[in-house]
Amino acid sequence: MSYMAKFRIWRGDDTDGGLVDFDVEVNEGEVVLDIIHRLQATAAPDLAVRWNCKAGKCGSCSAEVNGKPRLMCMTRMSTFAEDEVVSVTPLRTFPVIKDLVTDVSFNYEKAREVPAFAPPVGVEPGDYRMEQVDVQRSQEFRKCIECFLCQNTCHAIRDHEENKQSFAGPRFFIRLAELDMHPLDAKDRRREAQDEHGLGLCNITKCCTEVCPEHIKITDNAIIPMKERVVDVKFDPIKKLLKLTKPGD
Amino acid sequence: MSQIERHTYDVVVIGAGGAGLRAAIEARAQGKRVAIISKSLFGKAHTVMAEGGIAAAMGNVNSNDNWQVHFRDTMRGGKFLNNYRMAELHAKEAPQRVWELETYGALFDRTKDGKISQRNFGGHEYPRLAHVGDRTGLELIRTLQQKIVSLQQDDYAASGDFESHIKVFAELAITDLLLDESSSQPRVAGCFGYYRETGDFVVFEAPAVVLATGGIGKSFKVTSNSWEYTGDGHALAIRAGSTLVNMEFVQFHPTGMVWPPSVKGILVTESVRGDGGVLRNSEGRRFMFDYIPDVFKKQYATTEEEADRWYTDPDNNKRPPELLPRDEVARAINSEVKAGRGSPHGGVFLDVSSRLTPEQIKSKLPSMYHQFKELAGVDITAEPMEVGPTCHYVMGGVEVDADSQGAVGVVGLFAAGEVGGGLHGSNRLGGNSLSDLLVFGRRAGAAAAEYVAALPSAPKVSDASVDRAARHALAPFEAAGGENPYTIHAELQQTMNDLVGIIRNGNELAAALERLEQFKQRVARVSVTGGRAFNPGWHLALDLQNLLLVSECLARSALMREESRGGHTRDDFPAMSPQWRQVSLICRMADGRIDVTKQSTPTIPNELLSLFDVSELQKYFTEAELTGVAGGSQA
Q1: How far is CA B448 from the centre of its chain?
Q2: Among B438, B486, B566, B584, which is most exposed with the fewest C-beta within 10 angstroms?
Q3: Is the complex ipTM more than 0.90?
């Protein structure tokens, strides 16, 4: 059942680094994170990696496995051929700290820029009433485990560092959609989605949806509906017509 | 040591799970400046692993539910060793704490009339657990995380600085509490730690510290707990002069994954059973009917027919025995496997596929469906799961005052959540952990704020104590040629699993203590390679000291308690003893050694005892204790 696998792991820090080869034992049923842990316990005790739950629930162990953004704990070794070289590299969109650990503070800064849930005025705790069918839409987005794989894969920032300032990324588009679709949220978030968070920069290539380990339909259920809602408020043809007929406005 | 980064706060909360965040929110609400210290990234705490729900007697699904019933269930589940006052506060305040989460933006599953839905769980008389599918912990942590952010947004609006009142220090580990050396009794002055990212040291000067560090599961080989659960708060507290109570009580969750080996121990939520899942052995028998203990005979169905009727008509039928408290189910599974009636990979079968439709399973248990599909290649809508016990929770913890969560023995120190002891007695009911975090997190935050407000002057951190802490943290780099920390950790976990596990006896516990002595010597000589920046080997070397300390507390207490109760089973003392119910075991540190002493449990007031049928109390209490209780013997 066991075999020796060839791993190629990026090691280094923000100044320098490169791929290092390891031969390492693999046993039945193991995932990539198990192999990283075996390397820590044997050949590379100081190999830096983030992980917590090892069950796909916390979103800590994000990395690129053979170039694909993945949770290491949910990537089974049985998906690779035994003679295949498995490469593990840090998320490319964020600056490296050490080995497989990157600086994901970008995401925490963006989180702060999304205004929080605005509780309905005059509704006491315990008196909130919502239908299951209405909360379900937002619940899909609240499944997000903040692994930031969608942020990492989104080419609007992966290939365009300059967009980071003005683009919140898919994780925060679903946050905006979640709040906008919350049955009791008292705030309108449509203008801000477009003006402050760069929703318009997304050209719906669905890369984020593809990498989401929670299978959230980021593009279809959050981004596209948000774009449609933004159109409703920002590009209302009747209002536009009214504006045109009022010269000097 | 003047180059060490220093911060001054009113309250430092160590731990960023449910209890820590709720404590921080409360201290901030009282106007205090708060630091939240997280060993991981913000939002990754172990709370995220909780699946089934938050227990709160809101009565949304069955209006017969109220705090008295919840209190009763909690005491029964803990076999009456619980700190009764904590159990009372918990049952009374949990509904408020859950409703409050909705005002922070939480979205729970709903009942038909739009209220928060509640589900059945082991040991709870009525459907009581507020939930979001099987990812309730994620909802809790995200909601609290977003509440913290919203408070920071308020602060930004007021001061132009997001971090003027609450700052989250992510990936920072605390290695020592710093005490006020001018004080005659131990008194908090701050704490000392390192940034995982850089290895740089940092000193927090703060008159109040709230420990919210969670549990100790990484002492065991088979566990549902993450790397963070290394008993840090327990160790910080006892080293600072506080005491730990009833550390022998460890919960082995009955249903962890057993295969493949790499996922052994990962949690399978109790909701599977709450929603109709049944346990069967290799002969196809629903064996839980054979394991209903005398004390629970009145509350559980004795035939499959009655048990099955209960799901649709709970008022006229008794509950299925799959929903007995966790300690009972875990022991039963252990016995079945030992008797040779286990599944191919050493567990038993948990089947929901023959009880619910695939659509129901995917909507009620989505993450279980994915977990088995992706990690084990098992489709739980079509075939049974294989499950077995896994170390899940420690009932024991820092001895605290029930109302304030103030730690015994150290002024200015508070503990909330899993690191605190008392609420759950000898066994915790599922769902009572998330409510514990909220109720006592809030109480600890409030009490810490009040303590700081009443303080005439802040205690001082001495340079000498900072120097000592720095030397302590760097020691693993000094020892050359010592052992690899990973090897020692693996052996420690194996020892605890083999000798201090789900079924214990005096000989094995004595053997465990001998081995722990050897581990102490080895841990003292452990050496690490590499530099200080994000070096997991170094981090583990420091965590190992904490693991070893809590393991010793656990084994010593387990050896002393000569009875079986809840999460402590001795095959050489199989009976539960009313005399031992009157005893708490207290661990403290004296001259570098762990001392365990007996302490009387407080007398439960009659108004709380009278919530029970006296015939039930007679199974747990001595006759003398029931004197004067309605229906009890008259003196």
Answers
A1: 21
A2: B486
A3: yes
